[in-house]
C-alpha cells in the first residue's frame, strides 16, 4: 500500500493553483471540472508519477473551521521535503513567498514554515 493522493484545503482554487505552480514550482497534473469546483492535482517536478497534491476547496464549514484553527494556532497543514533548505528558502523568498519561520535547526533536521496565501501554513523540512 502507498499514498497516491493527499489534499489540502484552500480558500481559492485559482489563487492556490498560481501560488503552488508559479511560486513553489509544482506541476499541474489534472485540472478538471468537479461540480462547481475543480479537481486540481499537482505533482513534484522531481517525481511526476509520485504522490498528487489536491487543492481542495474549503467550501464545507468543517473544512473552513479546521483550516482557520490550524492557521491561527500556527500549525502547518502539511510538510514538503527539500534537499537544501537554505537554497530553497532563498529561492522562495526571491519568488515573494512569506515565511513565518526561517530555517531552524532542530537536532538532525532543519525546518522552515511559510504562508501559502490560501489559508495554510506549510512546513519545509531537510532531513
Automatic annotation (TrEMBL):
Keywords: Dioxygenase, Oxidoreductase. It comes from Gracilibacillus kekensis. Pfam families: Glyoxalase (PF00903). PROSITE patterns: VOC. This is Catechol 2,3-dioxygenase. Residues 1-127 form the VOC domain. Coiled coil: none annotated. One of its GO terms (molecular function) is dioxygenase activity.
Amino acid at each position: 500500500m502507498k499514498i497516491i493522493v493527499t489534499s489540502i484545503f484552500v480558500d481559492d482554487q485559482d489563487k492556490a493553483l498560481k501560488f503552488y505552480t508559479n511560486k513553489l514550482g509544482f506541476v499541474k497534473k489534472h485540472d478538471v471540472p468537479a461540480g462547481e469546483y475543480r479537481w486540481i492535482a499537482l505533482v513534484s517536478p522531481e517525481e511526476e508519477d509520485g504522490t498528487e497534491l489536491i487543492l481542495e476547496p474549503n467550501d464545507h464549514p468543517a473544512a473552513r473551521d479546521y483550516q482557520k484553527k490550524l492557521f491561527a494556532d500556527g500549525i502547518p497543514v502539511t510538510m514538503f521535503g527539500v534537499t537544501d533548505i537554505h537554497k530553497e528558502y532563498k529561492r522562495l523568498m526571491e519568488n515573494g513567498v512569506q515565511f513565518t519561520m526561517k530555517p531552524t535547526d532542530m537536532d538532525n533536521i532543519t525546518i522552515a514554515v511559510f504562508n501559502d496565501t490560501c489559508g495554510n501554513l506549510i512546513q519545509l523540512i531537510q532531513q
